Amino acid sequence: MVKTVGRAPSLPSQVARLISDEILAGRFKPGDRLPTERELAETFGVSRNVVREAIAKLRFEGAVEPRQGSGVFVLGNKAHLALRIDTEIWRDTRLFSNLLELRSILEVEAAGLAAARRTRSQLAEIKKALQELRPQALGYSVDADLEFHRAIARASDNAYVATFVNFISEHVRTSIAKANERIDGPTRARTNEQEHAAIYEAIKDKDVVRARKCMRQHIANAMERLGLVEGRR
Asked: What SS3 state is found at 80?
């Protein structure tokens, strides 16, 4: 029986979720090879391009692995897939707000740990990312923004904190770009420099309380720019 999905804004996300459901239900187990693109396209009533994008999403999440000449194989287990976050989550205001709240919880503590534990080389990595965000840089880069936060997470000296911050950062990439569209270039560059520089200075000074406070304010400001919450001062 054909399982036709609705023509929603993101068909690949819908197909990725349906395949994940099949894995969670045990119909596809770790080590199993998925049906071919053509077979999946017929099963879900979509084009092969949609299936290809869905597989790319699942690959990014670590659920499947394409193998040259052999097909696509299931990697994820139930525990991993239970942590799955839809790449289109930014379209749902409530869920996305919850994700940013989780980001704040993680990154505020990561900043505090980084201030307490960072090494000279880790501080240098944070500074390098910060320099890419300054007005005199060639241009604002979302990648540089994400790398700044990742560098702080790595400096926390907690591999799990770094892993989760890295995982979440990829899911807020689109939101960062959209938030930046709301303000002009010079203002954006100045805002990013001020907020990120304040975090860096606190970590450099090994001021745990100030590092947490600056990170909390930065993420609260980002949420305000996205229109998710009222600014907190």
From this structure: helix
